[in-house]
Design goal:
alpha+beta; Arc Repressor Mutant, subunit A; three-stranded antiparallel sheet; three-stranded mixed sheet; 10 helices; 8 strands; elongated
Length: 202
């Protein structure tokens, strides 16, 4: 077996294990990126964006887009409407993947899936992150309580009705506790805004 055959074989194994991969994943393994094009031609892989590939026939799930975005932009965190959808809170069905990024980070270029970038900083960026395995990718998503607090923080962009619905649903379906909500409301500096709504619901 030639070196080329060995490298392609390793790439096939990698594709089988991960389902979604980025061209940069091949560098530490010493596998030439050009072999990705060969697997695309064979119908093994599908190119979904710049340097981003997924296994042909990978099951289409409601959250596949979250995995694709995370693979392309590893430092991002799924937030707001996309986090609500993931946690099954409310009725929002976003056509973009909403992500939080550090205010100082360069703007990423991603053609698919469509993304909506929100700039967070400090504890508002780093706290309340849970990791979920989606299509073989470790996806960082804000937990329900943090997501509700974020909805109140960005109520001018989302609408107060979206934030109120998220709060009601999160409490009703026991997605989080009142203490958790208050903790993240404090981090997001929306305690004065959210207090009357929490008092009315709780």
């Amino acid at each position: 077996m030639t070196k080329k055959d060995t490298q392609i074989g390793r790439l096939r194994e990698l594709v089988h294990r991960r389902g979604i991969l980025h061209a940069r994943d091949l560098t530490p393994l010493g596998i030439p990126k050009r072999y990705l094009g060969r697997l695309c031609a064979e119908g093994v892989l599908v190119k979904t964006g710049r340097g981003l590939y997924m296994t042909a026939g990978i099951p289409e799930t409601a959250h596949l887009g979250l995995a694709l975005v995370t693979k392309a932009i590893p430092k991002s965190v799924i937030c707001l409407l996309s986090a609500l959808r993931f946690h099954e809170i409310g009725t929002q069905s976003p056509h973009q993947v909403w992500i939080a990024m550090d205010r100082r980070s360069a703007r990423p270029h991603l053609t698919y899936p469509k993304i909506r970038i929100m700039r967070f900083s400090g504890k508002s960026l780093t706290d309340g992150i849970d990791t979920h395995l989606i299509a073989g990718v470790q996806v960082r998503i804000y937990n329900p309580a943090k997501t509700v607090a974020d909805c109140f923080k960005y109520r001018n962009k989302l609408g107060l009705d979206v934030a109120m619905e998220a709060l009601r649903e999160a409490v009703r379906n026991r997605k989080c506790t009142a203490d958790d909500l208050w903790r993240y409301a404090t981090i997001c500096r929306v305690t004065k805004v959210i207090r009357p709504y929490m008092e009315a619901i709780l």
